[in-house]
Amino acid sequence: MNAIQTTDLTKRYGDVVALDGVSLSVEAGTTFGLLGTNGAGKSTLFRMLVGHLTPDSGNVTVGGRDVTDAGHELREAVGYVPEDAGFPPALTGREVLDYQARIRGVPRAERADRVAAALGTVGLDDAADRRVGGYSNGMNRRLALASALLARPTLLLLDEPTAGLDPLGVAEFHRILERLREEADLTVVITTHVLAEVEALCDDVAVLHQGNLRFSGAVDDLREMGESGDLEPAFRSLIADAEGREPRATPEVQR
Questions:
Q1: Which PANTHER family does the annotation name (predicted)?
Q2: From CA 199, how far away is CA 232, in angstroms rounded?
Q3: Which residues lie below 8 Å from residue 86, measured CB to CB, with a gap of 6+?
């Protein structure tokens, strides 16, 4: 069963084509990577998956339901972690999650327990009553993940979840995701421009470039397309083919 299915998805901003006829599927229970440089269309696709944007043409289904008709059911099924959650710095972590639980419709009788469980899942128990303004970047990312888990979603969307984190913060975030995969019936989709993140976490991957889908399949299949069996030359080759040039290093994509 597919957790996500897009068919001929197109979105324009004026003369700029953000997505151009993108069709892809994400199998339920897998971790799926959306790989591409800045402006590839990754964030636009995410905003459509959570119903924040309407496609100009084509359709998107999540769990077999068209996102334009899903409404409240979509909000419960999908946990979305934006690149910058922008939590109020004067609130504590616990207060942030309590507020998020309210707007996500978590029953009052369950709210405190859900908040405590989410804080424990992301390792913020000891910092729960500290103001968010004093949190590190890594702690803020984990708080955003905790917020997304409050409604007990079946699909988790992470937009550049480790961008700007130091190596220890990246490793901790990866450990949390791996534990979630083991303990919950969860489909995870990650946008990233970090190849090592795709290799470490993802079963399948799609490569977007300038709004076009250049590849979708198993990470191992993409790796085999490279000259040395690595993701980097395979990714460079896909982008070069799209632009009609020789492969070269792509600064925005990291090893």
A1: ABC TRANSPORTER, ATP-BINDING PROTEIN (PTHR43335:SF2)
A2: 11
A3: none
Task: Say yes or no to pLDDT of 191 above 90.
Answer: yes
Report the pLDDT averaged over residues 245-249: 46
Q: Which residue in 53, 54, 50 sits closest to 62, CA to CA?
A: 50
Helix (H/G/I), strand (E/B), else coil: 107:
coil
Are the C-beta atoms of 161 and 190 separated by less than 8 Å? yes
Structure tokens at 15: 């003369």
pLDDT at 254: 55
What is the gyration radius of the CA atoms in the chain, in angstroms?
18
Residue pair 33/201 in contact by the 8 Å Cβ criterion: yes
Q: Please report the pLDDT score of residue 247 as a whole number.
A: 43
The answer to whether the beta carbons of residues 174 and 200 sit under 8 Å apart is: yes
The 10 Å Cβ neighbour count of residue 45 is 29
Tally of residues, the chain: 255
d(CA 50, CA 67): 7
What's 2-85+152-243's CATH class? alpha beta
Helix (H, G, I), strand (E, B) or coil at 151: coil
Among candidate residues 180, 104, 143, the one with its CA nearest the CA of residue 188: 180
* Structure-model confidence comparison of residues 85 and 92, the more confident one: 92
| Assigned token pair, 120 | 């424990």
- Select from 52, 54, 38, 51 the least CA-distant residue to 208: 38
* Per-residue model confidence (pLDDT) at position 104: 87
- For 44, the enclosing helix (H) or strand (E) is helix 42-49
Domain ranges of the chain: 2-85+152-243
pTM value is: 0.89
